[in-house]
Specification:
mainly alpha; Arc Repressor Mutant, subunit A; 3-stranded parallel sheet; disordered N terminus; transferase; S-adenosyl-L-methionine; COMT_dimerisation; O-methyltransferase activity
Length: 292
C-alpha cells in the first residue's frame, strides 16, 4: 500500500514537515537529515516488497532521487527565509557592525530591528537556517560562562547588502519573491495546455497594467530593472565605440538610465529614450536625454 502512495501527497507531506519542524518547532538539520534517510529507506523497502528489484539498489535509487528533488521541493522555504532576512535588513545590520563590533549575537541583532517585541527564538532559527545555507557565518564563543552564537557576513550575504551598493541583489530577491510575482507561476500549466499568457490568466491584464494597480509591485519592478542593468551600464561606460555617434536612440530604454550613462560618459552625444508612454511618464530627467 505504501508503494502506491501518490508522489504528490508525499511531496506535500515532506514539504510541510520541513518548514514546520525546522523553522517553527526548532528541529535541527541533523533531525531533518535523519528523517530524509528514513523516508528514502521506507520508500525503497516498499518498492522492494512489490518487485523483484534488489533492496540495496532500490535504497540507492531512492536516495539519489531525493537528492535531486530536495532543492526543488524545499526551495520556497529557503527563498522565503532569505527574504525574511533582507526585509529585516540583517545583511546591512551585520555590515555596519563589522568594522568595530565584528559578528553579532541574535540579541544584538534584535536591538537593531524596528520592534520592541522581537521573538529572539524565531530570529535564532532564521539565522541558523541561513548559516546552514551558507548565507551567514556563525561562530560560537564563551561569554560569562555561556556559549553564544555570533553571526557575520559571507560572500553570499555581502551581495545582499543594500547601503552604498548599487550592485546589491536584494531588489532582485524582493521582486522574485513578492507575492504577486508568485501567482502567475500557478498558471504555467495553463500556458502549456492552452497557450495563454500566465500573467494575463492570473490578473486579467498585462504586467505593465498591473504595476498601476499594485504600486509596491511597480516599485520592486523598477528596482529590479535598475539592478539588472547596472553591469551593462558599467560596461558601456568603458566602451569606446560611441566616439563617432552624434545621436543615440535607446528603443525600449525603460526609464532611460542606460542611455543617460552613455551620454554622461560621452557628452557630445544627444540621447533619446524611446519607450511606451506610460513608461516614459514615470522616467526621471537625465542631463542630455530627450524624450520622443
Amino acid at each position: 500500500m505504501i508503494a502506491r502512495l501518490s508522489i504528490v501527497h508525499l511531496v506535500r507531506f515532506v514539504s510541510s514537515w520541513i518548514v514546520w519542524q525546522t523553522v517553527i518547532l526548532d528541529y535541527n538539520v541533523k533531525v531533518f537529515t535523519e528523517f530524509v534517510a528514513f523516508f528514502n529507506l521506507l520508500m525503497a523497502e516498499a518498492t522492494a516488497r512489490s518487485s523483484d528489484v534488489d533492496h540495496k539498489d532500490c535504497a540507492s535509487a531512492a536516495q539519489n532521487g531525493m537528492r535531486v528533488l530536495s532543492p526543488l521541493l524545499f526551495g520556497h522555504a529557503a527563498a522565503m527565509t532569505l527574504k525574511t532576512a533582507v526585509v529585516l535588513n540583517i545583511p546591512d545590520i551585520l555590515a555596519r557592525a563589522e568594522p568595530e563590533r565584528g559578528a553579532l549575537s541574535v540579541h544584538e541583532i534584535s536591538k537593531e530591528l524596528p520592534s520592541d517585541s522581537v521573538d529572539e527564538q524565531v530570529l535564532h532559527r532564521v539565522m541558523r537556517t541561513l548559516v546552514h545555507l551558507k548565507v551567514f557565518s556563525a561562530e560560537r564563543v564563551s561569554e560569562s560562562g555561556t556559549t553564544v552564537a555570533r553571526y557575520g557576513l559571507t560572500p553570499a550575504s555581502r551581495r545582499l547588502v543594500q547601503e552604498n551598493n548599487s550592485r546589491s541583489l536584494a531588489p532582485l530577491l524582493m521582486y522574485l519573491n513578492y507575492i504577486s510575482s508568485h501567482v502567475p507561476w500557478q498558471h504555467l500549466h495553463e500556458s502549456v495546455l492552452y497557450g495563454k499568457d500566465a500573467w494575463g490568466t492570473a490578473y486579467g491584464m498585462t504586467s505593465w497594467e498591473y504595476s498601476d494597480v499594485d504600486p509596491e509591485y511597480g516599485a520592486l519592478w523598477n528596482a529590479f530593472n535598475k539592478v539588472q542593468g547596472a553591469p551593462t551600464i558599467e560596461a558601456l561606460k568603458r566602451y569606446d565605440g560611441f566616439k563617432d555617434v552624434n545621436v543615440l536612440v535607446d528603443v525600449g530604454g525603460y526609464q532611460g538610465a542606460t542611455v543617460a550613462a552613455i551620454v554622461a560618459a560621452h557628452p557630445h552625444i544627444r540621447g533619446i529614450n524611446f519607450d511606451l508612454p506610460h513608461v516614459i511618464a514615470e522616467a526621471p530627467e537625465f542631463p542630455g536625454i530627450c524624450l520622443p
